[in-house]
Amino acid sequence: MLNFDYRNPTHVVFGKDRIAELDQLVPANARVLITYGGGSVKRFGTLDKVKAALGNRTVFEFGGIEANPKYETLLQAVDVARKEKIDFLLAVGGGSVMDGTKFIALATQFDGDTASLLHHGFTPVPVANDKVIPLGVIATLPATGSEMNAFAVVSYQGGKYPVNHPCVYPTFAMLDPELTFSLPKIQVANGVVDAFVHVLEQYATYPVDARVQDRMAEGIMRTLIEIGPITVEEPTNYDARANLMWSATSALNGMIGTGVPLDWSTHMIGHELTALFHIDHAQTLAVVLPSLWRVLKEQKHAKLVQYAARVWDITEGDEDSRVDQAIDKTEAFFKQVGLPVRLRDHGVTQDQLGLVVDALEAHGMTALSESGKVDLATSRKILDMAW
Ligand code: NZQ
Ligand code: ZN
């Protein structure tokens, strides 16, 4: 196992009918800015319940944070937060709202050029701890894990930029599966696949004898395989949705990624596909991951053999054929929950693939994967196979 540090300060408040507890979770005299997206929280009544629970606190609202939140939109919220001297942010929404709110938390008291916060990659941004506005989240879409991690992804000038800082772990994450019953089917399918791929990018690398992490990862994946199709078809099945929600949070709260090699290549290539062609985040992953494995199966051989056996019960035949079957099963699972698995199904043409490679180059994504060997030519191979 590799060396690691692990600390996750987010207080998880899981289960139904808990919005009233916001009164204990948000500081009593806070000036609160509630942030939300395109309006689902208004349409389904969540916002009213949140405001009622906040009682006499001074509350402001900022709506309109779009999917794949844009820097320019978030700056408008930063203006509100500065002007109204906000000292607590409350995000109510999916990954985009939660991520956007983390950026607002970092940018509001930042003295320099706020766009510079987007250029630190996976290194924490240079912001002093006491210059971050604390935030809490009410997650309405189980997918990204943003509710219990310190990462955000912000869209800016045709790219998607990761931003992180330990002080943007939400102080609390309210996870009520019932708040997700109103999701359109496709967003639920997106959530299943995003969570599944998060697990795999912390698992399908090379073995380091990290048995706890491996078995937790396998447990989350088996859970998603069991409940994924059910929760897509039965939106009000509480137990299925509760299991999706906790799987998605557990997939990216740092726990299964401790002490193991990581490979975020699928996400990095996927981000370019979203930025260029506006394909939903999870749908880019469904397209890239199986092709990436087909190209890198030698590098990932030992873990893919383990994955085949422990996640899909594939133990017959030689190792290469077990790996091939596991890749096919993974792809079939993505299709089963309702996501396309080829770029052409998203209307991308073959001559547009060069644009993706150019964008990877422009964003410095030239040595991806756990080996650092995925150069631009290899990414092109992956994209050709994914087309
Ligand atoms: O905007 P509203 O009206 O709220 O509608 C949203 C949006 O249209 C809707 N929605 C959310 N909750 C709903 C609902 N509709 C009905 N009922 C509800 N309960 O769903 C749509 C998509 O929302 P969005 O937040 O964009 O989706 P998701 O949660 O998949 O987030 C995607 C973003 O997260 C980033 C992605 O890059 C993307 O920008 N990621 C963040 C990560 C992190 N912080 O660790 C990791 C991920 O890999 C990912 O990169
Ligand atoms: Zn993701």
From TrEMBL:
Cofactor names: Fe cation
Pfam family membership, one: ADH_Fe_C
Domain Fe-containing alcohol dehydrogenase-like C-terminal: 189-359
Tree of life domain: Bacteria
Residues of the Alcohol dehydrogenase iron-type/glycerol dehydrogenase GldA domain: 9-177
Keyword presence, Cytoplasm: no
GO cellular component: cytosol
Keywords: Oxidoreductase
PROSITE patterns reported in the protein's UniProt record: ADH_IRON_2
Gene3D superfamilies tied to this protein: 3.40.50.1970, Dehydroquinate synthase-like - alpha domain
GO function terms (MF aspect): alcohol dehydrogenase (NADP+) activity; butanol dehydrogenase (NAD+) activity; metal ion binding; methylglyoxal reductase (NADPH) (acetol producing) activity
Keyword match Lipid metabolism: no
Family under the similarity heading: Belongs to the iron-containing alcohol dehydrogenase family.
Name of this protein: Iron-containing alcohol dehydrogenase
Species in which this protein is naturally found: Shewanella polaris
Taxon lineage: Bacteria, Pseudomonadati, Pseudomonadota, Gammaproteobacteria, Alteromonadales
